[in-house]
Amino acid sequence: MEENRKKDHQALLNHGEENELEAFGYRTQHLRKAVCLIASMLTCGILQLMFYWRPHWRVWATCIPCSLQEADTVLLRTTDEFQRYMRKKVLCLYLSTLKFPVSKNSKESVVADRHSVINQAVMKPELKIRCIQVQKIRYVWNNLEKQFQKVGLLEDSNSCYDIHHTFGLGLTTEEQEVRRLVCGPNAIEVEIQPILKLLVKQVLNPFYVLQAFTLTLWLSQGYIEYSVAIIILSVISIVLSVYDLRQQSVKLHNLVEDHNKVQVTVFVKDKGLQELESHLLVPGDVLILPGKFLLPCDAVLIEGNCVVNESMLTGESIPVTKTPLPQTENTMPWKSHSLEDYRKHVLFCGTEVIQVKPAGQGPVRAVVLRTGYNTAKGDLVRSILYPRPLNFKLYSDAFKFMMFLACLGVVGFFYALGIYMHHGVPPRDTAPMALILLTLTVPPVLPAALTIGIVYAQKRLKKKKIFCISPQRINMCGQINLVCFDKTGTLTEDGLDLWGTVPTADNCFQDVHSFASGKALPWGPLCAAMASCHSLILLDGTIQGDPLDLKMFEGTAWKMEGHGVDSCKFGMSGSNILKPGPKASQSPVEAITILHQFPFSSSLQRMSVIAQLAGEDHFHVYMKGAPEMVARFCRSETVPRNFPQEMRNYTVQGFRVIAFAHKALKMGRLLEVKYLAREKVESELTFLGLLIMENRLKKETKPVLKELSEARIRTVMITGDNLQTAITVAKNSEMIPQGSQVIIVEANEPEEFAPASVTWQLVENQDTGPGRNETYINMGNSSVPDGRRGSCHHFAMSGKSYQVIFQHFNNLLPKILVNGTIFARMSPGQKSSLVEEFQKLNYYVGMCGDGANDCGALKMAHVGISLSEQEASVASPFTSKTANIECVPHLIREGRAALVSSFGVFKYLTMYGIIEFIGILLLYWQLQLFGNYQYLMQDIAITLMVCLTMSSTHAYPKLAPYRPAGQLLSPPLLLSVFLNSCFSCIVQIFAFLYVKQQPWYCEVYKYLFSFLLLSALGLTIFILFSDSQDIYHGMEFIPTITSWRVLILAVALIQFCVAFFVEDAILQNRELWLFIKKKFGFYSKSQYRNWQKKLAEDSTWPPTNKTDYSGDGKNGFYINGGYESHEQIPKRKLELGGQTTEQHFWTRL
């Protein structure tokens, strides 16, 4: 019973998604609400302020737990490590408010879509729907599933058949009205925040509330000038923050405003075409695509083809061809039917349709899939409005530090109470003095100290054309110790140069046609494939599309004409006509028409077209893609026997190789073409040959990789290209240093009678003749030389092998990753997974890429850097407008500078607060306090200027071979603060006791113990030795003899020398700390460090030229027995094994 009640009380929202939330049901109790209201009045609003900061406290205080079915308030909690709370009121929508009657019969559906949550959300006979609005997304209560579910989108459970037949003819007017009421408007509205609201939010920040309380105390004690100065600084800070937030709000509002003002044409059931504003669109509407058109929603294409510019999503302005969703009759969900390739049917909100290609006489149609903030653009805007907090150790350490300082303040509070009560001071005077000491230990600018370095770094990055949409990640850049790079367009030039073609005939490769010869490509099936198998379009008289496709098409010397030219000759309107150009070789074919496309996808690694040659009554299929993939779809007798050797011959030299295949389609009717399944088209093909393209390294690649290597930052290549090509590029760029061994890891799925297997093949360098230095696979019984074993080997594998190892050899994966350098033929999902696996080994991972394939990995990495022409990429927190990897060391340098300066300012302010605290404790002993102008000098003239100037230090031009400290709670920093505070305490106590023995000492006046800082040394010495009566009066000093002033200066200089020696010679001595670590047996707790150490001790690692099977180990996994035993791990290491990397003091070294 209790278990059922708990289950009814809570549920999950967005289960398994990035924004997963726990929902708890509560019902408001009016008596509790009244008690809280009275308590708020009695506490002068302090209770309301606490409820504002902690919304869950308000819910717990005013409500009682109940089932979500009965709740009028829902408490939401994020399921991540931050456990943030949100409070939402349950709203009710009534279908009875619609202009037409809605059936109250519980057996009748409200909408025609049987999968729709709307049918299950309507409570009959009340015709009521309960909902909540969370971060711009509306959720309705599903009465059957007993949970809140999203509305504003078509359910993923719809099959291709459902989408075509349930929505293909449009929605009725009544169903549109129901969906508009339940789903809300199709609008991405960003409110321009009123200045007053922003001001109130800033003022109610806990630090400003604490500062207001502190200033009230100072004013009550007569510190008028000091308080006014702090108030002015606080007002300036608040005004600047409000101005910045307002500007961001206006900029974001202007970015999305046009989205809500698009005129669209929809097809309404039984009424035909209807024009309306885009904010009236609902999921399920049939949208007519007229031509050039900015998409106001996400939609799935059901008829016709179109070409879309998706630069808003990917940063690439390359046109993308979209094809209609197939009309299959199975019940499989439509996304599952298309696997990872479902995006080829989806038109995303915010992208621009630049060309439509109707299939037959009807217009190009799409069914609205998602509206409003559920769309791709809406998701982008939401990620800006509600950024995910960063789990960086620095910020949690800072909070712990501030808690310690607050505890120190509590000690001071009781100390002040004791002193003042001992001297018989009235409670009226005692209380404010004790409260002043309570608030002094935490400097009000301390939180800003961690971000001020970021502000300067962001400005410097902007000058280098590196733009940032997540400034908090700049500090994280300083901790990066592994960078993953895409290959094409990132390490190598984006544009490829044509090298030659290798046609096939009679199951054999023919002579190479070299493009360098200047001769035209001879006519043949391979030439026809190159001329037609692409996704290029003709836009305003210019051929546009993927650079690789463009270069390949130019190599044929053919030309493209619009579909209006001679289109009737080929019986297909809406298709591009390809004709031989003036420089093309003689061809018996007058023209080629592309009838249908199966677009390229990185997961499928291929594309196909159906084309028709002029004068023929049948059709042709042409395919191009990764050679290994294309060969799979060809008849085995057409693939040359020496195909692997020929492939290797080119890939080991760094060439990019693309294969082509062809078959004739014997079909009589043209209209049948668009209904052909891809599986049927891409089968029983004839292998045509290879296209060889040169992929040169960018000139910046080698120096940058060398710089990162010298800084001991690992570099890894993650590419969709061929494995051998990737190995060659890695060697040419010296990502794999000369003399290092490369071991190819090849894994195979389990078969009927054989378990999954993993094979290790050693790659060797061999000189094949004068002037040639090529790399070949050695399948013999070679082994890694003993002297190099374990230290200079690099693993290389394909995406297929990675997937098999991930699933069947999970214990083997970390061992491969600590030395894995090349990952080829990786799909977008595998790239993201690989980045995540590196993070599990406690690497701080950077990802640098330029294409849509890298979006997932850019989001997953600690630091994602997009090389894009767009100023801000959707996926990546950093975007470089300079399209080479020079931005990576720039970013790491600025990250380190920001991190070090943040630490420096934080340490200075902490020591300043503690030292001032000690001085005030001594003054309180005499019932005295610093003077008004003394505080002005210390807090404003010295401390503020130090904070502003210390963080403005530029990054060091060379990357050091070790990272700065990533945590505040590290021995050097703690000892630095502690020892400096102790030195100052000793000097102050000595001076305090010594001054009381002087004949001129008088307890009536206040005295300043000067805290000498290097930045204020001249001013301090001037004040110390000046005899100006104005200074004595303003600073509340008493005149002393010259010898006493000299003594103060001497003691201060001695303290400075001692502190400087301890800080520089001991605390910042990296060699000393490494010696201490080694002497006392402290080990890094980073997973990758542990694996490196264990593997270095294993004489059998790395394996070479052998095969292991998943059944060799227990539970079907590959296990190396040596690592399962504790005997090989030092005892001290086992004792520390329970601590994570970041929790250990010595990890920073």
TrEMBL record:
<dbReference type="InterPro" id="IPR023214">
    <property type="entry name" value="HAD_sf"/>
</dbReference>
<feature type="domain" description="Cation-transporting P-type ATPase N-terminal">
    <location>
        <begin position="168"/>
        <end position="213"/>
    </location>
</feature>
<feature type="domain" description="P5B-type ATPase N-terminal">
    <location>
        <begin position="17"/>
        <end position="142"/>
    </location>
</feature>
<dbReference type="InterPro" id="IPR059000">
    <property type="entry name" value="ATPase_P-type_domA"/>
</dbReference>
<keyword id="KW-0067">ATP-binding</keyword>
<keyword id="KW-1278">Translocase</keyword>
<dbReference type="Pfam" id="PF00690">
    <property type="entry name" value="Cation_ATPase_N"/>
</dbReference>
<feature type="domain" description="P-type ATPase A">
    <location>
        <begin position="261"/>
        <end position="384"/>
    </location>
</feature>
<dbReference type="InterPro" id="IPR001757">
    <property type="entry name" value="P_typ_ATPase"/>
</dbReference>
<keyword id="KW-0812">Transmembrane</keyword>
<feature type="transmembrane region" description="Helical">
    <location>
        <begin position="401"/>
        <end position="421"/>
    </location>
</feature>
<dbReference type="InterPro" id="IPR004014">
    <property type="entry name" value="ATPase_P-typ_cation-transptr_N"/>
</dbReference>
<dbReference type="InterPro" id="IPR047821">
    <property type="entry name" value="P5B-type_ATPase"/>
</dbReference>
<dbReference type="InterPro" id="IPR047819">
    <property type="entry name" value="P5A-ATPase_N"/>
</dbReference>
<dbReference type="GO" id="GO:0006874">
    <property type="term" value="P:intracellular calcium ion homeostasis"/>
</dbReference>
<dbReference type="GO" id="GO:0005524">
    <property type="term" value="F:ATP binding"/>
</dbReference>
<feature type="transmembrane region" description="Helical">
    <location>
        <begin position="973"/>
        <end position="995"/>
    </location>
</feature>
<dbReference type="InterPro" id="IPR008250">
    <property type="entry name" value="ATPase_P-typ_transduc_dom_A_sf"/>
</dbReference>
<dbReference type="InterPro" id="IPR023299">
    <property type="entry name" value="ATPase_P-typ_cyto_dom_N"/>
</dbReference>
<dbReference type="InterPro" id="IPR023298">
    <property type="entry name" value="ATPase_P-typ_TM_dom_sf"/>
</dbReference>
<dbReference type="Pfam" id="PF12409">
    <property type="entry name" value="P5-ATPase"/>
</dbReference>
<keyword id="KW-0547">Nucleotide-binding</keyword>
<dbReference type="GO" id="GO:0015662">
    <property type="term" value="F:P-type ion transporter activity"/>
</dbReference>
<feature type="transmembrane region" description="Helical">
    <location>
        <begin position="433"/>
        <end position="457"/>
    </location>
</feature>
<feature type="transmembrane region" description="Helical">
    <location>
        <begin position="905"/>
        <end position="927"/>
    </location>
</feature>
<dbReference type="GO" id="GO:0015203">
    <property type="term" value="F:polyamine transmembrane transporter activity"/>
</dbReference>
<feature type="transmembrane region" description="Helical">
    <location>
        <begin position="34"/>
        <end position="53"/>
    </location>
</feature>
<dbReference type="InterPro" id="IPR018303">
    <property type="entry name" value="ATPase_P-typ_P_site"/>
</dbReference>
<keyword id="KW-0325">Glycoprotein</keyword>
<feature type="transmembrane region" description="Helical">
    <location>
        <begin position="1046"/>
        <end position="1067"/>
    </location>
</feature>
<keyword id="KW-0460">Magnesium</keyword>
<keyword id="KW-1133">Transmembrane helix</keyword>
<keyword id="KW-0472">Membrane</keyword>
<dbReference type="GO" id="GO:0016887">
    <property type="term" value="F:ATP hydrolysis activity"/>
</dbReference>
<dbReference type="InterPro" id="IPR036412">
    <property type="entry name" value="HAD-like_sf"/>
</dbReference>
<dbReference type="InterPro" id="IPR006544">
    <property type="entry name" value="P-type_TPase_V"/>
</dbReference>
<dbReference type="InterPro" id="IPR044492">
    <property type="entry name" value="P_typ_ATPase_HD_dom"/>
</dbReference>
<feature type="transmembrane region" description="Helical">
    <location>
        <begin position="1007"/>
        <end position="1026"/>
    </location>
</feature>
<comment type="similarity">
    <text>Belongs to the cation transport ATPase (P-type) (TC 3.A.3) family. Type V subfamily.</text>
</comment>
<dbReference type="GO" id="GO:0031902">
    <property type="term" value="C:late endosome membrane"/>
</dbReference>
<dbReference type="GO" id="GO:0019829">
    <property type="term" value="F:ATPase-coupled monoatomic cation transmembrane transporter activity"/>
</dbReference>
<protein>
    <recommendedName>
        <fullName>Cation-transporting ATPase</fullName>
        <ecNumber>7.2.2.-</ecNumber>
    </recommendedName>
</protein>
